[in-house]
Amino acid sequence: MPNVCTGLLERALAHPEAVALRSQQMNTTYAQLCAQALAVRRELHAAGVGPGSRVAVAMPSGPGFAAVIVAVASLGATYVPLDLNHASERSGAIITHARCAVVVHGGSTGGWSPPPGPVLLDAASAAQHAAPGWGLTLEDLVEPGPGHPLYIMYTSGSTGSPKGVLVPHEAVSQLIESAGRCMTLEPGLVWAATHSPAFDFSVWELWGALLTGGTVSFAAREQILDPAALAGFVRAEDIGVFSQTPSSFRRIAESPELLAAAENLRYIVFGGEALQSDTVRTWTDRNGFSRPELVNMYGITETTVHTTWRILDREALGTPVCPIGAALPGRSVLVCDQDGVPVPSGSVGELFVGGAGLALGYLDDPELSAQRFVTLATARGPERFYRSGDLGYEDQQGDLHYRGRADRQVKIRGHRIALEEVEAAARRLDAVADAVVLAARRPGEDEQSLVAHLVPAAAGPLDLAACALALRAVLPGFMVPARLTEIPALPLNRNGKIDTDRLPDPWAASDASACGAAGAYQGDAQAAIRATFAQVLLMDPAEVGSDTDFFLLGGDSIMALRVFVEAPWLRERLTLLDLYQYPTVKELAEAWAGASASAPDGGGRAEPDAPAEAFALTRAQETLLFEWFGSDYRLYQDGMLVRALLPVDLPTLARHARALGEAHPAARLRFDLDAIGAEVRVQPRADVPVVVADDSALPLEAAMDTARDWMRQSCATPFDLAGAPPLRIRVAKLEDGSFVLTVVVHHVVCDGWSLNVLFSDLIDVARGTRTVEEIASSSPDHVRILRALPELERDDIAAVRAAKGPEQLAHLLSAGAAAAPDPQPRSASREEVAVEIDEETASAAAAFAQKARVPVKSVYVAAHLRAAGTAYGRSLVSCIPISGRPDLPGADRCIGYFVRPRLIVVPDDPENTALGFVQEVWAAERELMRTRLVPLADQLGTRGELPVRVHMNFVDFHVLESAADALLGVETYDETGFPLTVDVKMRRTRGGRKSPPLLAVSGLLPRSRLEHVAQEHVAALRALVG
Questions:
Q1: Which residues form the Carrier domain (predicted)?
Q2: Residue 742: other Cβ atoms inside 10 A
Q3: From the centroid of its chain, how far is CA 598?
């Protein structure tokens, strides 16, 4: 095992007069360094230090420290750096735990007394005896034996006691050698030393310079603590390699001194923490990317400082957190599941680090060493890896991305939260320069709450209430901190990391603001509503004006529901229907201000009481089951399959699927259709059947065909709704490592949005972003919602009857159909034709919607009415689905049958413009929402026959957006009672970007007829928006 000093002495012999160290404008050449190291070595040797000995070094970073560690290393001994800023108890504990034979100091012990036993050595006195021109030689170096590390670095342990990490000589040598293959680290380059010797960043700074013939320039403590002085140091010393933690760099990113130093800077190296893109952008907006180059490096003490590297560019700033790149040569990183099995690209897993940088283990802790340093099977055979506890994923370009510490994830109200995500949202606020978020318990409470400590971006106090509103606009409600405090700066420890022990008590701070759900709207309903709109629509609050229509911004029925979920205080006075009537921020705020403290009669949705074991069916469910019986059980058994990259194995995925069946009440419903007044019962268990198939030996398309065949056959097999789950699942592994998940469910318990929620839940659980337990915690809310539906439906039916809706509809339809589409000739089986709406037409439709001030959905419904609507007198009629989800907590992710097919009747005045016609469509849709739970039969009244033969659906299941990067394909299969159905399906790429919509036409018609209908729809759309 070669001694690390070999490279140093080779540099010293080649260029003895080159400057090795610089401090306070005093230079130490390589020859002088070797002479000082030899003098210290003699003293150490006299004290009994040799191979295997451990020497504590209680000295600040500087030339003296460098001479000591070179001397220790040359003897094959191990140095143990101490931080003089730590309490003496900690340093004493480290000396005792490491069984150090000698403690070296620089003329003073810093006010603390070492424990009895070790020899005290004054390095400053020893260095004074350095003989000029006589220093260490290669012959002096002692080869370290097996298990004899170069240094022991102590890090914080989860038990509260520091743990010693043993790092060998070759790990440091290989780090510098491999970095030199990726970066230009030539002799003479000046490296800044700004970190404590007890922080492993100092290993990179010191040995990186000495092993490449560079110069180490040591910053004084007062320069490190003062941002302006630190930037001035970088400029004055002509620093070429400047290493910073992101927290420290944010203090000086806008410094004129640092900008002036850019010409001589070769690299700014980031490490120690996740690097937010906004941190880098502050610099690159002024200085670009080329000089200096910005290098993001990831590593851990146990893997010798740095493991990966990434030269940053504009592409790297495309995500909130900069990528950490690829492994350095000779090192490796695997993204694995909890069992150490590599996960597919794009899936989040734990980072396992292998290669030449691994530490030997933890000092005197074989159990912890065995837990963290593990052996994995690789293509090259068994290899040793370190389990980092860090989460990350690899993108399609091969870049690794850091997703935070697994142990920095906390649970708040049953939700797992990454604190880094909340911090990033806070830093993006214009008024905030920096932030740290913690989970803390309020005095007297058992549950933790999030607390955000904010640093203002400008002089003067922060408007904490405004910050709270802004955070509510970009974060889900459960991620919004319960308390905000203002602090002048983030307290940093000697290592440049945030010192959380020095943060103020958030509950005692006078300059704190509560920002929970109730406090957010007090005094300014408009601001709170604007923030809620932005939060639900994933927009910047600045983009939401007082007069901007929620639905014009992209809102839909599900998002409207989430407005009331995220702002539950709205439900004290308003209902979901009010949002349709007052869709702008200003109108809704005025409606809220003018309403009484309790919801108006007939409009309120009172939350039902505790769940009951049995409750009535809705009339819509009864109608659907009647049609199901009449079709020989062919209709309303819906299928969906999803191909996805997931970081689990097949048995684990099957286990998750079964567990989710237990988590959702809909899967536990059993129908008692023989009871007087049919009812549905919630069973304690679901016992969902899950078929598990390993199809990895089949060609990919053959395996997909197998999944499609199973879906069709399962859809054709009637459910036993009285005695078995209304849900079937199949999971299969494919040859490329991806999975195909197939679900068949009865429509009576699961509409289209619900089916996508089920897939979203399954993918989230498989990727580790949520747990089955978290999903199951919503089960009581979901049962309440399902139980409430019959009563809510009765209210809507009564309202439509009171308004004489069926009579008015009958009068309108009495004119007779002037041009009903002929569904003949029929095909023996249902066929489907799909055409892509070109990007130009789709963009024109979106622009036309904005011009008409209507949702884009209304444009497509209008085009459908023009293409296939049935004409009754001067009106066009068709059937569209209306969402009936109630505005109750959890309704947006509740699985159930909430959709109601409804007739939409729109005046078709020949003198009306296309713009006016689309506005009429939107008005008709809003009118239907007023009684959204009314079944089609009750809308028709005594008129039994259906006056239209076509059903049109606008499909935008954005609930799967969070899993977009894992999805490889989605297919559906369903049969309804309509001879002809037209679906406009909004689509997104795997990266989550919108792609042109798909228009699918299906029915019991010949394929040629379906193709004609599809083309008629595209033509009608172009004519409407052109």
A1: 520-596
A2: 24
A3: 37
**Is the pLDDT at 70 greater than 90, yes or no?**
yes
Q: How far apart are the first and last CA of the chain?
A: 76
Same topology, domains 1-168 and 614-784? Answer is no
- In eight-state DSSP terms, residue 502 is G
The tens digit of pLDDT for each residue in 820-837 reads: 444 454 555 778 899 999
Q: Where are the domains of the chain?
A: 1-168, 413-516, 614-784, 794-1025
> Residues with Cβ < 8 Å from 878, sequence gap 6 or more?
861, 864, 865, 868, 869, 870, 903, 904, 948, 950, 951, 952
- CATH 3.30.200.20 for domain 614-784, yes or no, is no
pLDDT band (50, 70, 90) for residue 607: very low
Rounded Cα distance, 275 and 298, in Å = 10
Strands (DSSP E) contained in 415-573 are: 415-418, 432-441, 448-456, 483-486, 512-514
Kindly report the length of the chain. 1026
Whole-prediction pTM value?
Answer: 0.55
Write out the CATH class of domain 413-516: alpha beta
Please give the mean pLDDT across all residues of the chain: 85
Fold of 1-168: Rossmann fold (3.40.50)
pLDDT in tens, 404-418: 777 666 756 445 577
The CA distances from residue 828 to 24, 257, 634, 1004, 1006, in Å, are 91, 79, 14, 7, 9
* Whole-number Å distance between alpha carbons of 454 and 489: 8
Lowest pLDDT segment from 40-49, 188-197, 292-301, 950-959: 950-959
Distance CA(29)–CA(31), nearest Å, equals: 5
Report the C-alpha gap between 269 and 256 in whole angstroms.
19
Of 351, 275, 273, residue with least CA distance to 316: 275
At residue 608 the predicted structure's pLDDT band, cuts being 50, 70 and 90, is very low
Cα 971 from Cα 969, distance rounded (Å): 7
Report the distance separating Cα 80 and Cα 72, nearest Å. 10
Q: Which helix (H) or strand (E) holds 1009?
A: helix 1007-1025
